[in-house]
Design goal:
heterodimer, A: TIM Barrel, 2 domains, eight-stranded parallel beta barrel, two-stranded antiparallel sheet, B: alpha+beta, Ribosomal Protein S5, domain 2, 2 helices, 33% helix, globular
């Protein structure tokens, strides 16, 4: 069963106050960040703090993710300290090709306590990484999602980041398609203007419509908006329930073909309805008995 | 062994600033603690620092700790970072 990753909240890795309170916001995942949020001269101290936080802080139902530094800088030193503290996932920044995933995977194998227990998420944030998305997505058994980092990506393109994100449409679709082809999840770039809640809502609606399964989060205030968008709506749930009932009825009647309001229900529709019902049930949005 | 004076942590709330310095043989581990919660948690904080230092097999060191309400995990992490910066090496992989 795939993990729910509607919201993945960044917490700065060298800030004890924020690390210890990160569990109270009920994000689906918390990302203890050793990369951009930590000054170069504090990388060593942040590593110890994140390792101790993983052992001591109760993050409730939130998945524990650590964003390490890129492969060409401190990745191995980070993994050596972090992996024995048993994070659920390591988020790898600036992934450029499938070889990056293989190398990180080997490092994780060297340091993790329980073989194969730590999953990986690849953050694609360069034109090279986006171009290689399909190869990256299919690499190894540990990889459970691709995430898009649009700030570095648009800077490399020489494009300007906008509220509506036209400039990242290609990158978004590459990430979504590559992840879907490899049966893993796709996670959207964060919405960086934390004061623009309407903008966040619209951006998240677009992300869901395109096929993303969740979004990176840079401020706890963004979580509720994002969850609301990614949760199935009442309309979607009732449609999905009716589809599955029509299928059940057709089967009971020995008919091979089912229809709902004159429209034939085929396999992709059933699959979509099942996904919605499944998600609704996990989120407690479905009444008992179905 | 503590080879040189080193520091880790900050004076922000929930943090603790740890400074470790070399000490003469037979002087033991001397912990000089300042804390906003000294009467309530002074002993606990000292104990956590001492355990972290002992994990490095260090017998002699002077440690100055300025606490701003850090939890145990932060005290351990900052002590360990200061020790590593001072050139100390851990005895065994945990």
């Amino acid at each position: 069963m795939k993990r729910l990753r509607r919201s993945m909240l960044f917490l700065p890795g060298n800030n004890p106050g924020m690390l210890q309170n990160g569990g109270i916001f009920a994000a689906d995942s918390v990302i203890l960040d050793l990369e951009d949020a930590v000054a170069p001269q504090e990388k060593d101290a942040a590593r110890f703090l994140v390792a101790e936080a993983l052992r001591s802080i109760d993050y409730g139902n939130s998945e524990k993710v650590v964003r390490i530094n890129p492969l060409e800088t401190f990745a191995e030193r980070d993994i050596a300290v972090i992996a024995p503290s048993r994070p659920d996932v390591i988020l790898i920044p600036k992934v450029q090709c499938s070889k990056d995933i293989e190398e990180i995977s080997k490092m994780v194998s060297r340091y993790e306590l329980l073989p194969g227990s730590i999953r990986l998420i690849a953050l694609l944030e360069t034109p090279q990484g986006i171009a290689q998305a399909h190869n990256i997505a299919g690499t190894g058994k540990r990889l459970s999602a691709l995430a898009l980092g649009a700030e570095d990506y648009t800077a490399s393109l020489g494009a300007t980041r906008s509220r509506y994100g036209e400039e990242i449409f290609f990158a978004r679709m590459m990430v979504i398609n590559a992840a879907a082809a490899a049966s893993i999840q796709s996670i959207d770039t964060p919405f960086t203007d934390v004061d623009d809640i309407d903008g966040l809502q619209q951006d998240t609606v677009l992300a869901k419509k395109l096929g993303f399964k969740g979004k990176l989060v840079i401020n706890p205030r963004q979580i509720d908006v994002i969850h609301e968008v990614f949760n199935p709506s009442n309309g979607e749930i009732s449609w999905a329930v009716r589809v599955l009932e029509a299928i059940r009825q057709a089967e009971a009647e020995g008919s091979g073909v089912a229809s709902l309001q004159g429209k034939m229900i085929d396999a992709p529709i059933v699959s979509r309805a099942e996904q919605i019902v499944h998600l609704a049930r996990r989120l407690g949005l479905l009444k008992e008995g179905f | 062994m503590v080879n040189k004076t080193a520091q880790a942590g900050t004076l922000e709330s929930n943090d603790i600033m740890i400074t470790v310095a070399p000490a003469r043989q037979c002087s033991g581990i001397v912990i000089d603690l300042e804390s906003i919660v000294l009467p309530q948690y002074g002993q606990t904080i000292r104990k956590v620092i001492l355990q972290a230092v002992q994990a490095y097999g260090i017998a002699n060191a002077y440690i100055k700790a300025i606490d701003r309400g850090a939890l145990d995990y932060t005290i351990r992490a900052r002590t360990e970072a200061a020790l590593q910066r001072s050139g100390a090496a851990k005895r065994a992989f945990r």
